[in-house]
Design a protein that fits this description.
heterodimer; A: Rossmann fold; Arc Repressor Mutant, subunit A; 11 strands; B: alpha+beta; Heat Shock Protein 90; 3 domains; five-stranded antiparallel beta sheet; five-stranded mixed beta sheet; 9 helices
């Protein structure tokens, strides 16, 4: 998944970015409210991680203006403000969840998953498509009852496709989900990951239609 | 002894003294009046007897029995023989001279009037004690209402004073109700004028206490909030270090962790420095030279400046003697130079110390981005960080600078650097 991290503190920002990347997310990181608005405007993000005390434009204002523009992207607030009134204000402004500093990387990852699940209309952490079973919390994939070990990017690609079985995602869309701005993308990166998934699961599990993109075949 | 008891004793004593004085006055007045009156009677009686040329002996005998009679009459013939004596049992002194006399005798003191007529000496005498008793009676009658009223007044005083003292009690309980959480002033409306200064002084104290407390509370809240940022970074960095899959990754994570710890340590040190700078405590008055201080601080930051490819020089030719807290002033200059190096990307930093009139000036100038005029006051607020503030700062440096300057009676001003770019911080000592 592609996340936008909005955090003005360099140390927290870089550590959170690194931690979330290890979870297989593509993470773009901006340091102030204006940049956050500009970045969010292109609509490629699956989730926003938003600090509230930001330079130039504070987090709540960013959130309100996003919602005012009708953007439905899930937002997880990360802040040091822990007063109940702050939480209420954040949630009322349109946030999906609220995480208070100092937080744990594992908790952050779990909240990201939970918010994404809720957003997708699922409440269970396990995604089932045909013989494919994805435990999004443990990032475990089972194919026809046996565990399959996937790399971070392979997992992210599979989860992106399994999220809406049968729907097509273009190569560009997949690249956006897998890589942040500052990450180098090999021109055939998606093909490489798709190939690996077909090899590890089933050659027919991912369909590639020219001009349409890739989709998961549920009953392969 | 309580005010109530003291008031009771003194007021009752005053009342009693008043009563006694009144009784004394009445006593003397009554005695003077009685003297006049009885003297007149004595005289009248003597004159009446004089007009009677004879005294019937039966009458004399009859008078004999009236022991209660106040007047004792004696009549002598021309040859000095006693012709008549009304109270033989009483040893009334004999006539010594004509007119009024007062004589002491074994039977007491007597007031005597004597008159001579055709060879007869007529003397009428009255014991003085009769007159005194009259005066004493009058005095006691005067005193009586005071004595009767005394317990009543005591009760009244006790009650009234008690009632007035209730204001004190209610003020005391109002003070007792004050806690560090509720220091609102005590109402002065129903407080009597005598207690008003006390309550007003107390309210002043409560106000100052409240301000100091809320300042402390705000500081602690701010500090706790500010500590969260470096702690969050530490927690994340530690987890990254734990998750590292190879040595290179682990090394990177540890380097980040080290930076995070250094930042947390710096914040804690700055917080402590600020907390130690109690605004009410007097500053030390060491004799020191700002020129030496400028060189020393520049020296201390030389390596860092070189690493950032910035020039750092101290411009202080002559000694600049001032009196102050050496360690605090070093912290002040250290913070200014630290800020200058932190913000400056290219160019350099100059530290100057010079005499100016009777005072001294310490100056740090950089070629960084400067601070917009609108922000130049706010940057002295605790934890305020400018929009373009680089990371790693604590937001406390300038607050500490300001606090130290204030303790030395010095002022801090932020202005443009030479040529309109950069920042110049000027500390002026009186």
């Amino acid at each position: 998944m592609r996340l936008l991290l909005v955090e003005d503190d360099a140390m927290i920002g870089s550590a959170a970015q690194q931690g979330l990347r290890q979870e297989g997310h593509a993470v773009d990181w901006v340091r102030d409210g204006r940049e956050a608005e500009a970045a969010a405007a292109n609509g490629v993000y699956d989730l926003l991680l938003l600090d509230l005390g930001l330079p130039r434009k504070d987090g709540l204002s960013v959130l309100r203006s996003l919602r005012a523009k009708g953007m439905q992207v899930p937002v997880l607030i990360i802040t040091a403000r822990d007063a109940v009134s702050d939480r209420v204000a954040g949630l009322d402004a349109g946030a999906d969840d609220y995480l208070v500093k100092p937080f744990d990387l594992d908790e952050l990852a779990a909240r990201v998953r939970a918010v994404m699940r809720r957003h997708a209309g699922r409440s269970a952490a396990t995604l089932r498509v045909g013989s494919l079973e994805i435990d999004t919390a443990a990032r475990q994939v089972r194919w026809k009852g046996r565990d399959v070990a996937l790399s971070g990017r392979e997992y992210a690609l599979l989860e992106a496709l399994a999220d809406r079985p049968g729907a097509f995602l273009t190569r560009a869309q997949l690249e956006e989900r897998l890589y942040g701005w500052d990450e180098e993308i090999a021109s055939n990166a998606v093909e490489v990951h798709v190939h690996a998934l077909r090899r590890k699961l089933d050659p027919a599990i991912i369909r590639n239609v020219r001009g349409m993109g890739y989709s998961l075949v549920p009953d392969a | 002894m309580s005010i109530r008891r003291r008031l009771l004793v003194w007021l009752l004593a005053a009342v009693l003294a008043g009563g006694l004085t009144a009784a004394g006055v009445v006593f003397f007045q009554a005695r003077a009046e009685a003297n006049d009156l009885f003297d007149y009677q004595l005289r009248q009686l003597a004159l009446t007897l004089r007009d009677r040329t004879f005294i019937p002996s039966e009458f004399a005998e009859a008078l004999q029995g009236e022991e209660a009679l106040d007047f004792a009459i004696q009549v002598w013939g021309a040859d000095g023989t006693k012709l008549y004596e009304s109270h033989r049992s009483l040893r009334v002194p004999g006539a010594v001279q004509l007119g009024f006399t007062t004589q002491d005798s074994p039977s007491g003191r007597w007031r005597i009037f004597a008159i001579q007529q055709r060879g007869l000496t007529i003397q009428v005498a009255q014991p003085v004690v009769v007159r005194d008793r009259l005066a004493v009676d009058a005095a006691l009658r005067t005193l009586l209402p005071f004595v009767v009223a005394l317990p009543l007044m005591g009760l009244l005083i006790w009650r009234l004073v008690g009632q007035e003292m209730k204001v004190l009690e209610s003020t005391a309980s109002a003070v007792a109700r004050r806690t560090p959480e509720s220091l609102e002033p005590i109402a002065t409306r129903s407080v009597p004028a005598e207690i008003q200064p006390l309550v007003l002084a107390l309210n002043g104290l409560l106000g100052r206490l409240g301000a100091a407390l809320s300042g402390q509370r705000q500081f602690i809240a701010d500090a706790a909030h500010e500590l969260r940022t470096p702690l969050t970074a530490l927690k994340l960095q530690l987890q990254l270090a734990e998750r590292a899959r190879d040595d290179a990754e682990r090394e990177r994570a540890h380097a980040m962790l080290g930076e995070g710890i250094a930042r947390a340590v710096r914040l804690v040190e700055q917080l402590l420095a600020l907390a130690r700078l109690d605004p009410d405590a007097p500053a030390r008055r060491d004799a020191l030279d700002l020129a030496i201080l400028a060189h020393a601080v520049a020296q201390a930051h030389a390596a860092r400046a070189a690493e950032a490819r910035l020039t750092l020089e101290a411009d202080a030719q002559e000694p600049v003697p001032v009196r102050g807290d050496r360690a605090a002033l070093e912290t002040l200059l250290d913070n200014l130079v630290d800020n200058a190096l932190r913000y400056t990307r290219a160019g350099g930093v100059v530290v100057r110390a010079r005499r100016e009139g009777p005072g001294a000036v310490l100056e740090v100038e950089d070629t960084g981005p400067g601070i917009a005029p609108g922000e130049r006051q706010r940057v002295f607020d605790r934890f305020y960080r400018g929009e373009s503030a680089p990371t790693g700062g604590t937001g406390l440096g300038l607050a500490i600078v300001k606090r130290i300057a204030e303790r030395h009676g010095a002022t801090v001003e932020l202005g443009d650097g030479a040529g309109g770019t950069g920042l110049r911080a000027v500390v002026r000592f009186p």
